[in-house]
Amino acid sequence: MDRWPHRLVVVLFPRRVVPGGNGIIGGRAVTGFFTAPPAGMQVAADPGQPSTIEASQVSCWFGSHKVIDRTSLVMAGGRVTALIGPSGCGKSTFLRTLNRMHELIPGASSAGGVLLDGVDIYGPDIRVTQARLQIGMVFQRPNPFKHMTIAQNVLSGLRLAGIKRYNRDEVVETSLRRGGLWKETRNRLNDLGGSLSGGQQQRLCIARALAVTPRVLLMDEPCSALDPTSTRVIEETVRELCSSLTIVMVTHNMQQAQRVADETALFLIDGEGEPGRIVEHGLTADIFGRPRDPRTDDYVNGRFG
Question: Residues 201, 167, 174, 262: is their CA dihedral positive or negative?
Fold first, then answer.
């Protein structure tokens, strides 16, 4: 596991900060954006307790087009929160604001705050790399480094972050176990990541994200490209992980939301060209069984969207 056939380069786009709590992101001036967190990401939360992540009045733009309007949501520690809603209503954009990936898109900008255990990850003292180590991401399509071995894939996040681990074998095993992939790969750790099936590759990506011990794991439709068997395994893995992690998942699968999520938030838009916003959030059983908003009842029962 000491031989790395490729050199990896990460390009980080800095956020320019303007004194007095204002900022410029992607060319758009925003006000009231920053709080004054303590230096670094060392928050006072009990390390044995899953973290709470809170979006506060988040708005997002692509150029001059506003796609999310003043959206707030508390995603409780140790629970799975599902984000549902029709395509184009801002779910994935909202998800990307939770670990500062939205700002990587040329012309993209945002306003509001995202608090991890009370610390705003957009604060002037927080580096992008710090935020993303604490808040990991698994994408819609599996994206392992296909020309690296399985073990190298798991350790790649640590290498990229410059984190040294002297117990690398233990990290590989623990991460693959938590990702639900250890039994299938324990005798083939030196095989290439690209040799795995699609479902296995997605679990490898989960293991890679877990290796840096994040507090929160974001998942953007992680099963949309997978067969039912692989989907079931991923869902079982998610339920196991939420005992020690906070998980936020975008899904278009209403049955999946009911199977895995403790809480659900519904995003909708009011009309063509309007920004998305959350119209209802609550316990998943209530969202699907006793919704307060008639639009929620229509959506979860397939009457629109």
Answer: negative
- For residue 1, how far is the Cα from the chain centroid? 28
Query: Do 270 and 279 form a contact (C-beta atoms < 8 A)?
Result: no
Q: So what's the pLDDT on residue 25?
A: 35
Give pLDDT tens digits for 180-231: 999 999 999 999 999 999 999 999 999 999 999 999 999 999 999 899 999 9
Q: Which residues contact 6 (CB under 8 A, 6 or more apart)?
A: 145, 147, 148
Handedness of CA 272, 252, 61, 51 (dihedral sign): positive
Give the orientation angle of helix 198-210 with respect to helix 168-178, to 10 degrees: 120
Q: Please state the φ and ψ torsions of residue 113, each to the nearest 5 degrees.
A: -135, 155
3-state SS, one letter per residue, for the chain = CCCCCCCCCCCCCCCEEECCCEEEECCEEECCCCCCCCCCCCCCCCCCCCCCEEEEEEEEEECCEEEEEEEEEEECCCCEEEEECCCCCCHHHHHHHCCCCHHHCCCEEEEEEEEECCEECCCCCCCHHHHHHHEEEECCCCCCCCCCEHHHHHHHHHHHHCCCCCCHHHHHHHHHHHCCCHHHHCCCCCCEHHHCCHHHHHHHHHHHHHCCCCCEEEEECCCCCCCHHHHHHHHHHHHHHCCCCEEEEECCCHHHHHHHCCEEEEEEECCCCCCEEEEEEEEHHHHHHCCCCHHHHHHHCCCCC
Q: What are the structural domains, with CATH classification, of the chain? A: 19-35+50-144+215-300 (3.40.50.300)
Reference 232, options 255, 252, 210, 214; nearest CA is: 255
